[in-house]
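#lab-general

N.A. 3:47 PM
ok so I finally got the sequence cleaned up, no stray characters, all 329 residues accounted for. can someone with queue access submit it? mine expired

B.Y. 3:52 PM
send it over

N.A. 3:53 PM
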Amino acid sequence: MLTVILLLSLSPFAAPTVFADEPKRISPEAFVKKFNMRTIVSSYGQRLKSYCERFPRDYFSTIHYVSDSELGLYDGTDYWRVTFEEGNRVTLFNEITDASYESRKSFHVVYIDSFDEWRADKVKIGRAESCKPFKLDRQISFGNEHFKFKKMTTYLDNNDPGYIELGNGEEVQVSFDLIPWKEVDAWPKGRPVSIIYELDKGIRFQDPESGRSLPVFYYSGESPLDQIEEACVAVAGDTMAYAGCYGSSLQAWDVELNRNYKALMSVGDDQEKAKIRAAQRQWIEYRDAQLDAVGLISRRPGTNWTIRAAAIAKGITKEQAERLANLIP
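B.Y. 4:20 PM
back already:
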């Protein structure tokens, strides 16, 4: 077992901390967004010794919201399972699968109003003087109504009508609204940019420096929804979990389908709208008939049929969502 011992100076981090009235219970969402992992005094994760990031959201490439009381955090072979208990106690199980490292500890966490963050009630670990922030190439969140994606890349060039070339060989087509075209056109080659996805906003092209983003109508890379689904399947442990991944993906593709349909109906002329509306109504009848058949298949003996039926049901809606997206000018 690999253990890292952290030698800490009692000054200035050991000074008494005055805690504000704490909320009743820390949630998985608050833990990801607002918990400062540098406050843990333990052998957790060798990298904590020179920890540059503030919160789990800056470090873990995959965040699985298992439930209201459990969270899974992954970065390659580094895995953390976080369970939330009464009285704001949090149990952390940390495993590094390629280094025979495993540890489990429980902490009481408190909310510090002046810093707007949660901390363990322990001595704070200081940052290394030459600390360089760790940058994630990609981060995915899923489970328990979460469905988010962020991928870092760079800006290369843009072409009319709104095509932007990215440093990883991909490209996007955007609508220049919150970020004017002239501003983007003046960006230097290699400027950091992001491709992000959120359930309520869809795929967007983001300027991390300003936080502004543009809606994406076309993205040449692998769909963020497919990547989220793949991450979910990768950590699924049983039949219900596998089927749940496809079920969540189906719901996300249904949202995408409706978004694409509305976008398409907003730009067509009267004749095009009539044709699209009629075709969509016929597709809904086709979809419902297919789902009835898939539902029967899912009741066949054997757990594999449950998973296969869920994947087929998702695929039906995904195909139509992508078909409508390809028609948007």
